Protein 1
Amino acid sequence: MTATKPFSATGNQMIAEAMRQADPDVMAAYPITPQTTIVENYAKFVANGAVTTEFVTVESEHSAMSACVGASAAGARVATATASQGLALMWEELFIAAGMRLPIVMANANRALSAPINIHGDHSDVMGARDTGWILLFAETAQEAYDNTVISFPIAEDPDVQLPVMTTLDGFITSHAMERCVMEDDETVRSFVGDYAPANGLLTSPTPLGAGMFANGDSYMKSRYMLRHAIQDSLPVIERVGKAWADTCGRPFDVVDAWECDDAELIVVVLGSAAGNVRHIARELRAAGKKVGVVRPRVYRPFPVKQIAEACKGAKAIAIMDRADSLGGQYGPLAVDVLGALASAGQSAPFHNYIYGLGGNDLTNDLVHKVFDDLEKLADGSLGTGGTSYLGMQEAEGAQNIWLG
Amino acid sequence: MSELIEIRWHARAGQGAVTAAKLVADTALLQGAYIQAMPEYGPERTGAPLKAYTRVSDAPIEVHNTIVNPHIVVVLDDTLLDSVDVTEGIKDDGTVILNTEMTATEAQARLGVPAGVKVAVVDASGIAIDTIGRDIPNTPIVGALAKVTGVVPVDLVKERLTETFGKKFSQEMIDANLRSVDRAYEEVQTA
Amino acid sequence: MKMPELDRFEDWAPEEFPKGYLCNAGTSVEYITGGWRSMRPVWDADKCTNCMMCWVVCPDSSIKVADEAMTGIDYDHCKGCGVCVHECRFGALEFIREDEAEVA
């Protein structure tokens, strides 16, 4: 194993490199900010003969994912990338890809959804794909975007998993910022990812097969039951593949990155790049003797229920930070998942849910300090539990009475 | 350096601030530092005021937000002073580097910064026109930054510049850029 | 691909379903839909010119053909839609009630 010397690259460049090393048979993609540079870089690899991929240019993301579904059903290794409105346009095919158990790997540069039009980073798009049956990985850095993309292929193609994987990074914040990165050499990645041997490819099977069948309620429900188990049971596989990659490259992998949680009393749960902002401040607070911890799910679907509950065990107060809102619901999507995990483990602690950073709105150090200040108030009871607020716009209050009456 | 250094760049779109922000980061990387460089993306077109950011540190950089309390502010166009509060949030012992024909003393008065803030001036546009033949002040001002702040050594800047530009430009153009870095390094003045 | 027996598909356990709801091709042959019929086409070989129009329009591939000539109707799969009868220009197909056919 040899890694490159450290070099500077954006998250999008790193994802394109990881995809180049995995060398999928087919890529069907349509450009959209802030994903465009992934497929742009990839198209260059195709043009320069650096990969064997058949690049299919299509007229929309709806067609892109349709082509990916077709190619994957045929038995090809398939990759693509999208963002925002593009992911939204793929919505119906996302269900088809998962329902047909097609191991497509797709990068998503997480971006806001219209209206108003906004090209910047938040999780509104990817949260719309939350319930589709795709495995969802969130990268904090450009380096992690690379590592997550490398492991996406063997996870997706594992015979026990056979599910599509979305490898996501925060639009602009991670997709376009230049950071220090390293890359393992092509041979290492190729042998780690391995060759894809589809179990039942329509063009690789010795006998003709039927796909995309109709199912009545009974068969449909049984089939979906198996899908639920498939994604649930993929967590140990994700962990195994992630750890194997960590052994190869020397960079750690955990489905939940629980920073200083062993004795933490004030815990923030947060996805993606913002976890770095929170840890940046948490280090200062730790140095000042505060028992703070940061919990970052690197895998969001399947949701690592046990690991989240375990990380939050000693918490006297929990802040859950959502970069997307669940409009009309009481809490953002991450908060609902975290609260479910705690409830099922019989744990509870005062908590507050923050909606932050929508449309790329900056998560400043001051705002992170505000969250930790609120956590202290939650812990000592001067702030009531169960509230939701838009961070930086609204003071945190206890559970808002429009919900509880 | 033993800590996180944060640099904020103010320029007009088209002046090469993003290239400069990346050049500094890439140079620091050659020294083994951790780096981050990013523009503030928006609907800018040529001439619109924009910001870019560079972070340099010995330790991995975790924070992913814009720089509101910079150690160093670099201004590539002094006409921005009329419309943008370029020194907003600057550290009390920070440094401002300004592309201008003003003297350092004039610039210090114009900026109205606290006494602890170091103000440096260089006519990067003039140097660029002399050497490169166009008003692209981004490479010379990195020479001035190297001299005034020591964040990156000037020789390494030139090494990195040669490597980056070598892929795109003629030797003549690379040499002109290197001369511009040297001249700004020599000519930068502090108050 | 190995699949459980089709005739008991309603009793398949969830784990018996092939991943991704795939199945072997041509399984509709094993699914006898002839019982859905209330009317049936009856073929008169003497009037038939083998123009094959009925073969073209039959939605259930139930016109049996061998050596470029019609040999009969596949009553295991014919659902009795009557399209062949409607399209036949030579009076070679008659449409009769299923109960009359059973008596005959």
Protein 2
Amino acid sequence: MELLSLSEEEWTAIRLSLKVASVAVLTSLPLGVLVAYLLARKRFWGHALLNGIVHLPLILPPVVTGYLLLIAFGRRGFIGSFLESTFGLILSFRWTGAALACAVMGFPLLVRSIRLSIEAVDGKLEEAAATLGASPVMVFLTVTLPLILPGIIAGLVLAFAKAMGEFGATITFVSNIPGETQTLSAAIYTFTQVPGGDAGALRLTLISIAISMAALLLSEALARRVGRRIEAE
Amino acid sequence: MTFTVEIRHRQGGFRIEAEFASEGGVTALFGRSGSGKTSVLRIVGGLVRPDHGRILVGDQVLLDTNKGICLPPHRRGLAYVFQEPRLFPHLTVRQNLGYGQWFARSRSSFADPEKIISMLGLEALLPRRPGLLSGGEKQRVAIGRALLAAPRILLMDEPLSALDEARKAEILPYIERLRDELNLPILYVSHSVGEVARLADHVVAMADGRVTGIGGASEILGMQTMATGRESGSVLEGLVRLHGEDPDLAAIELRGCCLLVPRGDLHEGQKLRVHIPAREVLLATAEPHGISALNVLRGEIQALTGSDGGAVDLTLLCGEEVLRARITGLSAKRMDLAVGQSIHAIIKTVALNAPGLAH
């Protein structure tokens, strides 16, 4: 049992990872839905460009994404210095920066999943809602949104899983500071770099598997419940 | 509620030009598929913005391109029944019905919801989800949902075309009840002579994006059906008189002649329109004896035209009613038919089959 009891630092890493991943997906969700809706339903100048930018983190080496974040959101970066002087918000080497890195890395997965489900919604239903007196915003809230709920849940889980496992961009942007930016993945990496760290790495690996599995099962259950309501058609 | 519609619109290479008005009742936009009637309905509903146009309902302007007015669909106060039901799958029947009602809560409705629900026979369906309903039930819910939105005009785009004959027969009486009991103007798009003959008060006939005729149903349908192939026939209108000798029969009193039909649920004095397909009319030069058909009308040949496929179309004047008949060219030749000749038209009773008019 000695092997399975977690040290205080390990607990900290787990709690931090859960906090970072949750904040990352929940704050990026509204923007994700908006971008997915624009990409799925609107034709505008720069459509392909927006699509490309959203998907970039998926294909760039994570280190590159992390470095770009460091340039832009670092304390001397053009966005970072603005955020600090205006809102007092510092991202570099803080857990909030880790959340930003995770959000950026998970964003393409979130948008992709939601966009596909929006495209699967029959536009004729939205048309019918409009003829019944619903304004475009009400059409979205009462018809589109309930119908894409399974897609949103799937997107959230994918992005959450990505955020839990995110390593390259995070460590490049906010480094590996225990208690502040050392997430589960970074902690495992640290254990593998010190002699006698195998047991710690293994414990955290098992925890990591358990969390991922739990998230997956939860999302399946949620999607089934929502799906049962909608599927009937 | 009166409304006027004036539209000019180009859709790809197709030009639509329509101008008509309605004083209420059921106005049918009638024509073959591709004649532009659905496009006109979509423009009225606000789903398509035309190049030029003006649409008035009562004294409210829904669209006036000269003044840059074009109300979006949700602010037009109309409701639309589409070919397919388009029910919201995530809501129950009750919630579907309540959808438009919720947005219309500030408007006074012309009928209370209970009445509409019972009129359409929806009570038993209320807690169910749309996915488990039959096609006919779904379309009834869609009609109810549109009515509960308290529209000033109901737009219907071939609401029966996706249904089989049995389902059509199930829904038609409900639409007739809307017309008779709710005093709601309906703009009804259809290519079916039978449906239009049965439902419409006024007909706007369309072909190739243009209006080719406006008028009463019998007048326009009679004129129109002459030109079209399969459904060619006559539409006659008369009053029902119950038959003295046989309780199972009823007579339809036309102008200068009379037809016998199975009584069904017809009642004395009822106004009725019947559609007689041209090919259901047989001709005889001498008065036929020993024949099972009940309806033999005496008439005179007014016109005789050869049509495609070697058939000959005849226009007969029976009393004051105009009857169309279609026979083969060979028969016309053998019988030596000519304009002005007196003739007997034999109509199989079943062909009338009022008021179902299944074609």
Protein 3
Amino acid sequence: MKLTRRQFFELGGCLLGAAIIPRESYANAKKYATLIDITRCDGCQGEKIPLCVRACREENKERFPNPKKPILPYWPRKNYEDWSDKKELITTLTPYNWIFVQKVEVEGKTLYLPRRCMHCDSPPCVKGCPFGALTRQPEGNSVIDHNLCFGGAKCRDVCPWHIPQRQAGVGLYLKFLPKYAGGGVMYKCDLCDSRIKKGEIPACVIACKNQVFYFGERKEVYQMAYERAKKEGLYIYGDKQNGGTSTLYLSPVPFERIDQYLAQTKARFRMPVNIPNRYHQEINPIGKGMVATAVLSSLAGIAGALMNRSQDDSKQKEVDRDEE
Amino acid sequence: MKNRIQRYGILVRLEHWTVALSGIALIFTGLGCLPLFKRYYIIELPGFGWTADFYTVTKIHYIAAIFFVMGVLFHLFYHGLRKDFGLIPRPRDFIDSFKVILASFGIGKEPPCDKWLPEQRVAYLFIGLNILVVGGTGFLKVLKNLEWVVFSPKAETLLNLTHTISGGIFILMFIIHVFFVLAVKPNWPLLKAMITGYVDEEYVKKRHHLWYEKIKGKVNLEG
């Protein structure tokens, strides 16, 4: 394949252009965030199911998994993840329950924390998904494409909060080698992607009677959170964690104490305060090194070629000389 | 002592082994990114505990990719600008490749070959194109993770999926390549040449007759 230097740079220019175009539309799109004010949440005492949880289940019921049974274990292991007989479980995250209310007792206070995907600014689940099933939307939310997900659960492993939940016996992997690869489909909150794309508000936000949630433009939500934290002496969670997220919690007690309680009670979902974004800290510096290497090795190739003519050429010339 | 003819210079061998060794590391860590290692107990093997952490596996993948990118880009620019096009397929190469492969197994006779066998030229084309896809998408993924470029969600899906699929094809091509080098005895001198740089004159005379005619008695003969 002949590719002249000029063609190479033209191709490079086209690729760069193609990559930059979506950036424009991305920058112009509205980014949202949610403020979760736990000073206002009472876990919906008196209600059978917290209203946010009920609204979420109602909103997404058509998208819940319907596994094909019997479900094959994840060979060579004997286990598989099946929540289909625990559909009514509302006290934790499952493929059938994408938000739950976590009860915490700190400093003599009982707090209720609605927990779901934080929708990170730089989501490791999206970066790590080998199938591209996870994408970050222009609105700032991370969404799993249930038709593309293979259920490897890597997203759960790389998520600092281990939010996505797996259901076996459903999804694309069944069409390939269901015994040997894949494990189902991952499920989590997508911030009501189809609603917010229409300019509507997520179901959990609307359902809350205590106005625990405030959903709005990201800048406004961040500003509001910082102002209230300063004015009322509250603590913020979600603005720094994992490099920043689209979900901010406001609490009357420090989040270190909340996480301490969750650690002591061996809670499935913790709230660690010190969460660096490992892509930013550990992986991207190597990525920069790779870009530099690409430039330097290209330059080295060009310089080397200019200094050394093709051996074939020079040999040919030698042959020609000999023949003269 | 037998006469030896230089087949691969030091640069070519360095390029080949840089791409090969980093390619092996990329295959291993790429499979680890899939994820498969936990399920298949790899993380429990002595010395492989690090494969349990996706971030560590990704880091090693990136480090290996630095060497891979270095080898591939140097190769492209250096040989492209020098017009070293001996490995670019020629007409009839597909048919002649089959003849060479069949002859390797004792069926029929090999057509007279130049420095590169027709099957090598065909393999170079396919492996080269695949490397451009897997390497190109990998490079774009790095830029995306750096957040220097932002892709639309659909483009992001396409990019990740293309990298994974072309990575799978790379593994397949790697296996075919290694199979033809190790399992086909007539190719063993080529492996030796990729290590030492030289092949025996007798081998060249027999198998690369066209190349032999071009160089005989003039260059690179040692005795």
Protein 4
Amino acid sequence: MPRSPLALFVLLAGCDTPTASEEPPFLRGAQPDYSAPAPVLRRLTYSQYVHSIDDLFGTGLVLPDELEPDTRAAGLYAVGASLTSISALGVDRYESVAYTIAEQVLTDPTRRAAIVGCVPVSPADADCAREVLNALGERVWRRPLSDGELDVLVSVTTTAGMTLGDFDLGLSYGLAALLQSPYFLFRVELGEVDPAGGHRYSGWEMASRLSYFLWDGPPDDALLLAAESGALLTDAGLEAEVDRMLQDERTRRGLRAFFGDMLHLDELDALTKDPSLFVNMSSELGPAAREQTLQDLDAIVLEDDVDFRTFLTSTDTHIDRTLAALYDVPAPVREGFGLTTLPISGGRRGFLGQASFLALQAHATSTSVTLRGLYLREVLLCQELPSPPAGLNTSIPEANAERPTMRDRVAQHLEDPSCAGCHQLMDPIGLGFEHFDGVGRWRDTENGHPIDPAGSFDGDEFVDAWGLGQVVADHGSFAPCVSDTLLRSALGRTLADEELELAEWHADGLHQEGYRLRWLFRDIVMGPAFRTTAVAP
Amino acid sequence: MSRRGVGPRRPLAAAVVPSRRGFMRGMLQGSAIFVGLPLFQRALNGNGTALACGGVIPKRFGVFFWGNGNRPERWIPATDGDSWELSEELAPLVNVKSKVSVVTGLSVKVPNLLPHTSGAAGLLSGMTPLSADGVESFAGPTIDQIIAAQVGGDTLFPSLQTAASDCSGESWNGVNSRNPPETDPYALYERLFGPTFRLPGEEGLVDPTLGLRRSVLDSVMGDIATLQGRLGATDKARLDQHLTGVRELEERLARLEEDPPSLESCARPPAEPEASYPDIEGRPQISARSRIVSDMLAMALACDQTRVFGHYVTDPVANPLFPGATAGHHNLTHDEGGDQPEVHAITVQIVAELAYLLERLDAVPEADGTLLDNCCVLGCSEVGLGQIHSIDDVPIVVAGGLCGTLRTGIHHRSYTGDNSAMLMLSILRGMDILAPSFGADDAYTEDGLSEIEV
């Protein structure tokens, strides 16, 4: 979300000096007036669906790799989920997986016992069916079921039980109905009249909003109790619940979901590289790179709760043997991931030294200075760049003796006025990473010629990728961009112009609190955009 | 005689489900109303084949799409009209040349503001795509869905979307409403030829669980309808799409209980797909996937499981490593110098996949001819010269005569940059859909492309 130039100026002024001791502590102003837009109807993303099933029925069920495909809008699956619907293919897949889940749950005595507390007296025992569906339905739909809704589900269940002569087989149809319902597949958070004035999300709706934001999964029983008691509608009750939830292991899942979405880490599954050019390429590389990035974020944001901007500058990182080979450092552990400190001599630190960035923002057979520069601007700084105009010849000259390096080859892009307007914003930054090849391995030279990674980024000079990481970390748009993106993810939509002041207020709070992102999760939950809404149109 | 399974037959559906046609009209915002022609009009098209074709033998339409365009100077045949020779890039079509018309020189008339997306949306929907807040979407339905809304009601699948790579496809019902393809060949096989498949002459399924599954879908449709009552117009329309999908599935389950259509050439495809098609040396198996899917599509059409398909080789901007290429496809279209021999070679590979599909369709006997004769397959990409994102002179192949309603065996070249929407209108009319127009704004047309019509 681009900010107004004035707002950006204010933030830049606030963030310019990284050493806090030299200036008085920054304090954000009062919460601005806020008027919420209409609510949006969000579909569960793939990961939210899977986490819901994990939490409802226990982990370990066999689930398909794909359901309704998620779509990124404004950079986030979380936003695409409030714009798209369920296609015919998605309907088929949701039906098929519902029966798969029901069968796995009801044929596993432990899982079955967790949801079936009664002993059916007949294949069509309506009382037992009602008891099971009433309790389970509240967890699956994240709200109590009406009598009418329960009647339909019990009827489906008992008809099936009678037809097939088996209570559990019958129940599988009731379960399948719960799981295919829009009340499960979509998050129905439409708001209610607030007796104090305006509209707010109801207690049940707040429970879903909290759990999918913080945990990327459904409410647990304690949260549902808090919803029922009305506690989530008071400041004190909400604070108590968010603090409890942030202590829960499931917050790791929420953090991973958010950063995986924001940083496009899912695309690492489809990482395509020519293995004859990149000996480190393997099918394990992409997933390993994602794990490195997410473990580092987990440590910074949740374990250590420190300035999250160190994500771009820290030499501490979590790697496995695959990545150790790529980065040419000793593997810290034999199996899995372990903490290591990268040597300064390696020239590599922070996220911008990881394959999650270097390999993904590159081509199958080469680096891409444009993709790397574009990603920094769009994803890390939330700046929008225009699409290339039609009718331009975009080819770059091939490498030869006169133009051995990428810097030589893109020189024309950067001089031709029809290209330079945009490419000046991307390529000089991307050239800072040219010591890292298309998969992220260090190279001293390109085609036998020295690489010059120096440049400047919005007025700040850097000599190489090591310095570039600091420049981006200190960039006045970086922390606000992460803050805004987290807010968009929490709300499942883009921000209206009238909300930019509130977005800045949250970003100011992040600054005030020393850029501890964990604090921002709580601040967003307690803020008005998360709790209030307009009437559905 | 078909036997019914146990359970109520759609007890709630009639009460809560608007007609599919009504839904499509809503998606089109009333701007155009498509009405199927009554049978007697279809019978009167003057070439004598119509009674068999379009009657007992259905007409079919399919899109064969690939991303990133072609090299126009090596694509466009040297001469036009009836007497022409295949160009270098069209050479793989040699075995079906007489059943193919190549149309060159057509322009997509929407403003080319979103590279690749403008071309795809303009060509297939005739409408300028939407773009706001980083969200891009087609603004209206693509031609395959306009056709499916008319002819899809009689088959197991109103339309099928398939793919030869992991892609999103270019089939849309309207804003933010995309029909993603089944990208896994094995999953596609299970859908089409799995345990529920019945050959002609076999009886419908007798399985009580079909009725039970329908009763579950009825409860789902009831929930959707109730929820819609609480939503604003946009979200209501989103749930309309969900509802349509549920209703289609419900109807498919009901149809499985009926005897399958008796079509002489319907059979299981010759081979089952592999469980997976992993990349080989970093290169996706596009050809293998396209071919096994083509085998399935031919039989899905021959068995009348669907009459509309979209087969997406790659998406616009897709960047896979094709065999022999030194960089990804999209990458090459922009960065390869000279006359781009690698881009050319990839285009030839893609046209070879189109040829494979057409040959499979042509190998299926149907009435006096072949399945291909009763199809229209629109082979196309979203740009012409990908290097400059050109949407002038986009590559178009129109294959199959659609029961004698479309001319085949010609190269028609427009020297005036005619509107590509004209061809779409001709196809709609060939499908017996009485469409007054196709496209919007600068792409709007009320005229078909007469040179391609019989």
